[in-house]
Amino acid sequence: MKKTYKGPFSPTHPEKYKGDINNIVYRSSWERDVMVYLDNSSSVEKWNSEEFIIKYYYDVDKKWHRYHIDFWVKWTSGQVTLIEVKPKKQVLPPKIKNPRSKQGLNEAFAYIKNRNKWEAAQKIAEDNNYKFIIWTEEELEKMGIKKKSPGKLKPLKPMKAFKKKVRP
User: Fold this and answer.
1) Of the candidates 75, 80, 141, 161, which lies 20 to 30 Å from 51 by C-alpha distance?
2) How many whole angstroms separate alpha carbon 104 and alpha carbon 100?
3) Rounded to an integer, what distance in angstroms lies between the CA atom of residue 18 and that of residue 52?
4) Regarding the domain delimited by 7-142, which CATH topology (the fold level of the hierarchy) does it fall under?
């Protein structure tokens, strides 16, 4: 079972948060790390989490939905940026071994949903002179927001069998 990180966030600088400071929730350790960064960065004038809502059309069910973008940030330069935090593997088209399997369909539908959300976010950004970006673990590591993962561990060499000495 995969462990997820979710919890409330209390900003050190509540005056920088644009929204309800009593209802800030991170849904991953990466989101929590971004919140700490935004809260403490002198380059950030205002920010919020999941309070900027974008309507998007989901191509699979042919219905309109609401997308709560991860972060809305107003920098001290005046630029506003819409930020989504996602693992790199969710940004790329899925490599589906069996497209008819339940897992294959779920990965394909999730990718389509994300693409629909991001197209809508890009359009809103363009219409309002904002920027829309997706931060993956690569960007978070380059920015120093997320510590670099140690990578894959090498398997240990098998140990020699232990032979119990027999005493005469």
Assistant:
1) 141
2) 6
3) 10
4) Trna Endonuclease; Chain: A, domain 1 (3.40.1350)
